[in-house]
Amino acid sequence: AYGNVFGATGDKFLSEYITKVNADTDFNSLKNDISLAFRKGRAAIVANDYATRDAQITIIKEKLAMVVAVRSVFYMQAGKSKLITDNGAAAFHDLSEGYGFIMSLRYTNKPGTNNPYFSKSEVDTMLASLTSGANGLWTIDTLGAKLDVISSQIAAKFGFTVAQAATVN
Predict the structure, then answer these.
(1) What 3-state class would DSSP assign to 23?
(2) Cα 21 → chain centroid
């Protein structure tokens, strides 16, 4: 799994987003935390130390969920900004990426609960809000407010601010 997360097998997808989030000073320990948890977990498996292994699994799940949450907010806010400056056309990429990351929130795992940070129903409600209106994501006159509400919900649940996530590139 470590190789897949950090691009050792040529799959850079998750590694790319971890690196982008980690590049921001507000989240600059994520990559190291994830890497260290993978290595400690592997060592614990070899040593038959399952309590340590399980603790590292919890860290990995928590940190990967944070990447998904931060990118969700980042793309919502980037899309909002482009709605204003480009009248919507250039926002589609960011809104599409954000939609995908929001959809992924239901697959996260909140530490100590064995539940996601957001249930399928909560995620579906956020996505329905994004696509509501006569033109869905292209209902530009009301979309900005929806993006702010959803961004705030995600940020609050994960303990960061919208402003922190919006500056991650």
Answers:
(1) coil
(2) 9
